[in-house]
Amino acid sequence: MRPSRPLLRTLPLAGLVLALGLGVAPATASDLLDGSERPGPDLAVVPGAPVPQAITAPVPLVTGTGKVGETLSVLDPVWDGLLDDTVLQWTRGGVPIPGATSLDHVVTSADVGEELVLTIRALLLGLEVGSVSTAPVLGALGDAPEVSVAPALSGLARAGRRLVVDGPTWSEVTATSAYQWLRDGEPIDGATSAVYAVLPRDVGHDLSVAATSAWAGHATAVATSDAVTARQAPAKVSARLLSSRVTRATRARLRVGVVARGVPTHGGRVLVLDGGRTLAGTRLRATDAGRATLRLPRLAAGRHVLVVRYTGNTGVAASSVRVLVRVARR
């Protein structure tokens, strides 16, 4: 008889059980007359040997919140019978997660909104004798990043100029930002880049930008810059006489130009004043491209310091320039 060896495997076979190394005599030819395949040298036929029995274990407790980035952990359950191995598998929405075969699982962005379950199968001699699954844990968004440095604006808050946002800095270095510019706290349609061109309609209103964090699998955070008040663009007015010599009998013509950086000047009026008296005036049209020619009335002989005044429009501030006109007697 062979010396006894540790129990390695038990399998039901044609109403018998084949045992490996049980300390019994090897099977004889008559033992195998039922047509079974002859056992190897370490196999013996043991009539009436017990088949492995089913076992159970309490439902394991899962620790962890299910948020992205956190770890779900399960304690190995205590079974009420014999086993020699366990097989573990996490599932996401009922589908096995590749490689997730331990008691711990780090929640990823792919798990958000899905039920996460760990199933533990108990094995004895290669046969499954029990199975238990955890209660499902719903994958959830991870916590939003915190604001380390708030967003800040640079540039001039004037019509026709640009504002640029810098930052913010988030506590998570991989988090990025999406921008939304605000006018008096309300979103400006289409203004979603890091640069904003100040419009005439912004004048007199507070401009700021809201930065929303973007971090895969995590909730969003919003950081808002300090507000700046938009102002009108300054205008530059130029004026020159088209006549080299003016007399009492002639009516001088004055060429006026009004420009502002990045903002049209049409809609504003151009007035020519002599002291408190208005000599001429016109309203700039879009087709004028900021230029106008005004014909002055006849002036008395002598020296006249005329004021050419631009009254401004929504986005451009009022401005003026002086022009010296000498009127000869003849």
Automatic annotation (TrEMBL):
GO biological process: carbohydrate metabolic process
Gene3D superfamilies: 2.60.40.2700, Immunoglobulins
Keywords from the named record: Signal
InterPro entries tied to this protein: Ig-like_fold
Keyword Protein transport: no
Record has Transmembrane helix as a keyword: no
Signal peptide location: 1-29
Protein name in the entry: Ig-like domain-containing protein
Organism: Nocardioides bruguierae
